[in-house]
Each structure stands twice: as C-alpha cells, then as structure tokens.
Amino acid sequence: MLESLSNLYQLMDDAWSRIAALYQFQCNGCQDNCCKSLFFHHTHIEKVYLRHGFDQLESDRKNDILNKAEDYCRKTFLADGEIKNLKIMCPLNEKSRCILYPYRPMICRLHGLPHELRKPGSNPVIETGCRAGRFDSQSYFKFDRTLFYQKMAHLEIYYRQTSKKKGKINETIAQMLISQ
Ligand code: SF4
C-alpha cells in the first residue's frame, strides 16, 4: 500500500513540475515560506509514510526534531483550546530544506501553483497560487487536483479498512510526529 502511495506522490510531483515549468516558476524559498503555514493533514496513510521516513533517521536527530515538534505544539495549541497561527517553521525544515522530502505529505507537494478542484454537480473551484509566483499576472495553466484527491481517498479508505483505523485525522506535521 505504501508503494501505491509512493507512486501517487510521483504522479503529483511530475504534474507539479510540468505546470511549474509552464509558468517558468522555480521555488527557491521566500519570506512567506509555506513550511511555516499551519497546514493540517487528514490521512492515516500519509502519517504512516511520514513516520516511516522519520524512523530511518538517527536517534539524535529524531530527538532534536521531536523537541521542536513539542515546542511547536505547545505554542500553537493552547490549553484552553485556542489554536494560534504563529507561522512557526515546520520541525522537519532544516536550513530551508525538508529533511523528509521524499516522505512529505500531499499538501506539501501540491502547494504553490494555481489549481482547480472539481466537485460533482458544481463548477470547478479555481484557487490562486502563492504570492512568490506572481501568478496573477499570467494566464492560468490547468492544474486539476481532483484526481489526486480521489486517488488519495481510495488509498486512505483501503488503509483504514485493513488497519481498522477509524475517522480522518486532523494533524499538523508536528502532531503527526509526536502522536501515535
Ligand atoms: S514536511 Fe517538509 S515540505 Fe512539508 S511543511 Fe514540513 S518541511 Fe515543509
């Protein structure tokens, strides 16, 4: 199942690179750094894959990352239930690079480019890309995420059935690293 997820990730990466090339866009890091965004991830299978990558790191490095993840959660999720978006760097980002790049979740892979999503019975919803790309001044190149979301949903359903997991998760990378 993880191999199927890896293949799906490859399709996403290929599509992203193809569309980015049409815009002549290269992500070289920016002030808005998307690794500081408060992204929530929703699939157990992606969490398993991320943690599979994490488990391959040396223990000192893992401890360091876990400390950062705990700090991230302490500052972001307050005891009274409030969630603070403080733009804290993801604990997996080191020197502007993702330590677990091959294992990063779908949203990390698809972020940045203008894209669309099609829901049955509705017109496609088109979202703007990140500010760094200055996409507003360019024509839109079709980047449809729908099929990726559908394939991910199928994989997740199958994973939940075989692993007896129930319900979706709603976790940041930091939470995925420190929770089971
Ligand atoms: S997992 Fe990697 S790509 Fe995703 S936010 Fe963290 S550092 Fe950035």
Concise account of the structure shown:
The chain is mainly alpha-helical and 180 residues long. The chain is built from six helices and four strands, in the order αααββαββαα. Iron/sulfur cluster binds next to loops.
Keywords, separated by commas or semicolons:
180 residues, mainly alpha, two-stranded antiparallel ribbon, 6 helices, binds iron/sulfur cluster
SSE blueprint and pairings:
Layout: H1 2-23, H2 44-55, H3 59-76, E1 93-94, E2 97-98, H4 106-110, E3 115-117, E4 125-127, H5 146-163, H6 173-178
Antiparallel strand pairs: 1-2, 3-4
Helix pairs in contact: 1-5
This protein binds iron/sulfur cluster.
Iron/sulfur cluster (SF4) binds at residues 35, 90, 92-93, 98, 104, 108, 173.
Structural class: mainly alpha
Task: Evaluate the radius of gyration.
Answer: 17 Å
Q: How many domains comprise the coordinates?
A: 1
What is the number of E strands? 4
Widest sheet: strand order? 1-2
Considering DSSP H and I runs of 4 or more, what fraction of the residues is helical? 40-55%
**pLDDT below 50 for ≥5 consecutive residues: which ranges?**
none
Mean pLDDT: 93
**Coarse shape:** globular
The total of helices stands at 6
Order of helices and strands: HHHEEHEEHH
Cα(first) to Cα(last) distance is 19 Å
Folded structure, characterized:
The chain is mainly alpha-helical and 180 residues long. It has one domain (2-178). The chain is built from six helices and four strands. A two-stranded antiparallel ribbon has the order 1-2. α1 runs antiparallel to α5. The longest helix is centred in the N-terminal third of the chain and has 22 residues, at 2-23. The protein starts with a helix and ends with a helix. Bound molecules: iron/sulfur cluster (SF4). Iron/sulfur cluster (SF4) binds next to loops. Iron/sulfur cluster binds at residues 35, 90, 92-93, 98, 104, 108, 173.
